[in-house]
Prior knowledge:
There is one protein chain. The chain is α/β, with parallel strands linked by helices. It contains 6 helices and 12 strands. The strands form 2 sheets. It has a 9-stranded mixed sheet, with helices on one face. Strands 1-3-2 form a 3-stranded mixed sheet. Helix 6 links the parallel strand 10 (232-236) and strand 11 (261-267). The longest helix is centred in the first third of the chain and has 29 residues, at 35-63. The radius of gyration is 45 Å and the shape is elongated. Mean pLDDT is 83; it is low at 7-13.
Amino acid sequence: MKNDKRSPRRGGGSRPKPERPRSRPAARPRAKSAAPDRAKRLTIPIVSFLLVVLLTVVGWSWKSQLHVRDVVVIGARHTPVDSLIAIAAVDSGAVFFDIDTHAIADRIARLPWIEEARVYRGADMTIKIDVHERTPALMAVDASGKPTRFIDAGGYQMPYVRGHGYDVPLLKGLKEPFIAGAPTENPALLELADVVSRVDETTDALLSEFELADDGGVLLYTTPKPGRGAIQVGMGTGGFERKLSRLQAFWDQEVLAQREKHFEWIDLRFDSQIITRERTLTQ
């Protein structure tokens, strides 16, 4: 038999694998210059600043050409409008946006009848003065019964205005001087004004007059009823809300229930008891 063995290939062993081409290292990107970016970052804020300055100048120039056309007063009943305009002291033709509205409101709020003042610029180049006036709780009268001033719930005094009637109790015996823009220094009167301003209609119907006594206490005179005179009520120097509530209860339970009696004096100065002086109407 023939020898079937094949002669080994030249070089012996298996055929060597071809070598892979080596990859070239990636080229490094060239570094960009930072100068353009830095210039860009500086340019934006500079342009913005110049734009703001330009708009400010244009806006100031535009505002300086706007002038007050008129001064309008809203809400005044007892305070003359001419007085409010004079106190505002806004010159005709004044620069509209130069007006100090807060200073005007502060001056107006010092007037005796003004409880609150608001001053603002209107859309039609007008200065608006919007006031809220005080509401009287008591009307003070002199010894002859002539009205002299009003007193509101906070104890502030307002000058009497003829022709404007208020259905409020009278107050006699007020001797302190009139001080505009400040509440009374009498603690009893200060409390009384606050309480009277908040009573209900039923109790309010009982209240005719108050009198400040020389000892610092308060006397109340009830509203006269048909066939009966006013009843004098001793109120003391404080606790008026509680005492008026006791008076209303006593009135409903005793005074109205005993029509044959006339109560001349009711003393509410003591918390533990009510002292009365009365007489029968048949005597």
